[in-house]
Amino acid sequence: MTRHGEASVPDPSTDAVIEVEGVSKWFKDVVAVSDITCSIGWGVTALLGPNGAGKSTLFRLLCGLTTPSHGTVRVLGGDVRRDAALTRHIGLVPQQETLFEPLSAFEFVRLAGILHRVADPGASARWALGVVELDPDDPRPLTTYSKGMRQRVKVAQALVHDPEVLFLDEPLTGLDPRQRLHMIDTIQRLGNAGKCVVVSSHVLEEVERFSARVLVIVKGRLAAEGDYHAIRDLMDDRPHRISVRTDDARGVATGLMAHSSAIGVEVIDPTSVLVETTDVHRFRHTIAAVARQCDARLFEVNPLDDDLESVFRYLVGG
Amino acid sequence: MAPGTDDGLTGFESFGSAPRPSGRSPSVVFTLYKLFLRTQVTRTRVISLTGLGVVGILVAWGLGSTLLRNPLARGTDFVNLYGLSLLVPIVVLVFASSMFGDLRDDSTLVYLWLRPVSRVTLALTAAAASLTVSWPLAVPPLVIGAWLTGGGATLVRATLLAATVVTLGYTGIFLALGLRVKRPLVWGLLYVFIWEGFIARGSFTAAKAAVRAYGSSILSDLTGRTLVLADISLTWSIVVPIAAGVIGVAYTVVRLHRQDVA
Fold first, then answer.
1. Are A259 and A290 in contact (CB under 8 A)?
2. Which residue of A121, A263, B103, B232 has the fewest CB atoms within a 10 Å radius of its CB?
3. Which residues are A224's β-sheet partners?
């Protein structure tokens, strides 16, 4: 999609919804984001990075809240900063808590619907508040709302006009465990519904549940992008650590040492072995054969460091 | 079924329930206007600035009760010194600078900015909301005060025109100031008291960059009372502040286009 404006409708067949081309952003002498090129497609993508890595700056660049010092950011083929009509297709959940405090939740979300020219902003506001499990008939002003309730109001105002592209900045902040589960489910459903959802978050174990695709920013640069399992597989310099539980740890360890798929084997106790390997796929075949050879029973083969948190830790050098 | 945006987007289906489009959507301009008033016109502001107007009325009543000669001259001085130098700029500063200044400071501007609403609409609506509340709080008390000083219909007319013109000028300027700088109240007070009240009184050239000088010139022209640095013609005294207000609104539009939003 290259043209947008009053009559533009996003084309779901377009692979790259957000295109970032050689983007840098600096504040006086400080380079916050340096020469990032990437694209984000439909579905859920998590934007990750340690504090001070430039994650927030990149997030703000993506939704047009700040201009790049160099390079271009295009959302649905257009520039959000130059084309206000494009914002009709965008929903943003910003990080800050402040809302229009004298308004009720319904008035606040309805306001967003009116500004987006939704045909029935009242009905849409009720629907959006229902999605985040808030009562649209609650007359209390937002100033009385808890942090978690405010967070849900912010999500509702981002959904009210049914945008194609959603930017969610730390959407799980302040939510209780049940609401976190609900929000994760909502994000998954948005992704499954064909939205482009960009989520900035530091709660990695929860990000892992709604998105496999990540963009990792480290020191202002794009450290990795794509499916984090694939990213992990590409880390040749970081052997995979696998825990094996068996009834004969010593026998299995001896058998594994004879195979080149394991580069390190450590017997932890009589029923568990810690293995390091650079080739997980080959190891999976080997371990079964070794167990058969030594007549051992395998209870569990558990990768210890191919979860998102481990991948993230490796990427940021932690 | 989609909620029905103008361009027919769909997607609520994945969440089961679906709002049905019905009727006309409320006016964006009227909604924004109400929002600006509701969020920025606080009870504290209204009470304190009403108090400033009441003080002016009491002072004017006191002046009018004395047996001084030439009530038109003393009334003109009162309007010039209290009304145009203090009451009008302070009232307009508080409301105009807060329209975008408060939204920028607490980061809620994004809830208006990232919407398909033209920047011109945003700026004009904010200016209209500011005028709606600042004009009644500044101009009528000053006009009542002018009448109470005994200056007569001439002074009342001159006060009404001068105060209205400078209100228009200050509104645009302080609207832009609110978006441009942090702590716009401080900068606005510096402009009013240091620039207009001190530096601009030092030369005719500097006075040209003071809205107050134009208001004083209107007063001086219509009442015949000679005021300090108030020698600008009536036409220019009306045109320049209004033009400054328009430029202020235009600059606000430009800032809304270019400025980073938190």
1. yes
2. A263
3. A216
Residue B16 contacts A where some CB pair is shorter than 8 Å: no
C-alpha distances (whole Å) from B74 to each of A309, B60, B222 are 77, 10, 14
The enclosing H or E element of A304 equals none
ipTM of this complex prediction, to 2 decimal places: 0.86
Which chain A residues are within 8 Å of B119, Cβ to Cβ?
A: 84
pLDDT in tens, chain B (262 residues): 334 444 433 445 556 544 554 455 679 999 999 999 999 999 999 999 999 999 999 999 999 888 667 889 999 999 999 999 999 999 999 999 999 999 999 999 999 999 999 999 999 999 999 999 999 999 999 999 999 999 899 999 999 999 999 999 999 999 999 999 999 999 999 999 999 988 988 888 888 899 999 999 999 999 999 888 788 999 999 999 999 999 999 999 999 999 998 7
pTM of the complete model: 0.82
C-beta atoms of A123 and B22 within 8 A: yes
- Residue A17 phi/psi, 5° resolution? -85, -40
Return the SS3 of A78.
Answer: strand
Cα–Cα separations (whole angstroms), residue A270 to A251, A284, B198: 10, 21, 89
Which are the contacts of B161, defined by CB distance < 8 A and separation ≥ 6?
Answer: B218, B222, B238
Decide if B3 and A162 are in contact by the 8 Å CB cutoff: yes
Contact B107 A94 (CB under 8 A): yes
| Structure token digits, residue B188 | 């606005």
CA distance B232 to B221: 9
Chain centroid to CA B230: how far? 22
Q: Each residue of B52-65: b (16+ CB within 10 Å) or e? A: bbeebbebbeebbe
> A107 CA to chain B: closest CA distance, Å?
10
Strand partners, A218: A221
Which two structure tokens, joined as six digits, stand for B28? 């964006």
